[in-house]
Amino acid sequence: MMKKFFVAFIFCCFFTSIALAIDSGPVKVGVNIPVGITLDDGQWQPTVEGYVWTAVIFHEQANFIRIHFDNFNLAVGEYIEVTDPRNQKEIIYANKGLKELKNFWSGSIFSDTAIITYHANRQYDAKEGFTIIEYGAGTVDFLNVNESCTSTVTYENLRCKTRPSAVMANAEKIGHIVFVEGQYQYVCSGSLVSDGSHFLTNEHCMSGGQTTCNTYDVYFEYETTGTSCTSNSATKGSSFSCDQFVTKNACYDYALATLSGNPAGTYGYLEIDPNGVTTTSTNVYIIGHPAGYPKKLMGFGNSSNDVNAVNVDPIFPGSCSNNESDSEIEYEIMSQGGSSGSPVFNESTNKVVALHHAGWDCGNQFSEQGWGINMKKVYPEIESYLGGAPPSGDQLSVTVNITHTYIGDLRVVLTTPTSQTVVLHDNTGSSTDNIHTTYTITGWDGTYAGSWSLSVVDSARYDTGTLDSWSVAATPDGGSTHNASYTGSPIAIPDNNTGGITSTINMY
């Protein structure tokens, strides 16, 4: 008999409408429950091909479950299946798991029950296997939506009416995100913006950079199946994980990453207007996933949805204080948390002109006001990553020398004086020895004076190493090259330690 891990947990309501509230953050849709399941738990059964280990996680009232694996290290030919009881969704992991991270979150199972099946060559081996340290359980039933707050004027299911082909084409590129921050599961929206599957969302939907990116579960076909403009059943389609965090800016509330599996090859990508919005006569609409609902079209075809203002400084939740003009636009479109990261389109050109990031929460009796970061500010900062030319004259290179017997265990991140972060090495290379590499960085903001830091984390057991030396060569705007380096004693990198080490150098 399979061992079932039963957790009785009564959820509070996550979708309370509050008058005069701002939906300036992602929506909490689930909670993470520690369990500590090891291969000593569950049930082993011999098979013709070897052994099968099975465990079942059941969470009362849950509508989706995600599994958090740790120390994931399977032998060649072995694999894990995560399924629901009806086997309607099957997720398979092998080797060292998702992106060889060893510590990762699975995709979502849309059920109150997740079945974890380990197809092993032999019974428990201390050098191989995995543990389940926690699971995420959510109350939102993504497949049977019962909406609590809608608008018949500005807020409708995408496919409940005949829409222009350009609008429908744009909608294909927009994704629903489920991700983890701390002890909770959240939802946001985002969109594909390059043929390299670059994915654009709000910074507050990826505030942890690569750490948050690694928890992403993204769906592009999450839409209603019928013609109702309010409530309906839905399908989710295939999911995609986040591959590499690229860059973010809390001031302009954007984050850019790439997705695994090349979704842009299937859905295409949006066209961005580098000029954004310059006049209040611009008519706009939004496509996204408010409150984690199926894909919605917000504000389309309503002449009252002209931009009300092109403001100075982002309002929520940005931290700009430099009185920049044209940094935020304001419009009369209702939204909810979960819409964060949705693209805002010019209705005449169907190009992206802003990134939605705040609005009066659904149910507010006074206003349907929303705010978006103007693409005039965002595009220059991400252009170089999307295939455009790098910022003129700015050149940055980082040389890293690490002695280690398994570089697939390592994650190496550079932080600039202005807190720009760049992932130089991210658990790739498998059993290759040592890192002796010079990295060329694009998209650097040109600030060289101040403290630079390099963090190194070894996220797996057994193999160890040292940070021997590293250096930075910065040439801002074609001027003089500034150099700084660490050449002291080698720094031991703690084994299987998420804290890792950080080395700091100063440049003048």
How many helical stretches?
4
Poorly predicted runs of 5 or more residues: 6-21, 388-392
* Mean pLDDT, all residues: 84
CA radius of gyration? 24 Å
Strand content: 35-45%
Biggest sheet statistics? 11 strands, antiparallel
Q: Tell me the structural class.
A: mainly beta
Distance between the termini: 66 Å
**Helix amount:** under 10%
Q: For this structure, what is the CATH class of the largest domain?
A: Mainly Beta
Number of domains: 3
Find the CATH topology of the largest domain: Thrombin, subunit H
DSSP, total strands: 36
Give the CA-based shape. Answer: flat
- The CATH architecture classification of the largest domain is Beta Barrel
Organism: candidate division CSSED10-310 bacterium
Protein name: Proprotein convertase P-domain-containing protein
Domain P/Homo B: 352-482
Signal peptide: 1-21
Walkthrough of the structure:
- With 508 residues, this protein is mainly β.
- The protein has three domains: 3-18 and 27-138, Sandwich (Jelly Rolls), CATH 2.60.120.290; 155-381, Thrombin, subunit H, CATH 2.40.10; 395-507, Lipoxygenase-1, CATH 2.60.60.
- The chain is 5% helix and 43% strand.
- The chain is built from four helices and 36 strands.
- Strands 2, 5, 8, 10, 12, 13, 14, 15, 18, 19 and 20 form an eleven-stranded antiparallel beta sheet that branches.
- The radius of gyration is 24 Å and the shape is flat.
- Residues 6-21 and 388-392 have low confidence and may be disordered.
- This is Proprotein convertase P-domain-containing protein.
- Residues 1-21 form the signal peptide.
- Residues 352-482 form the P/Homo B domain.
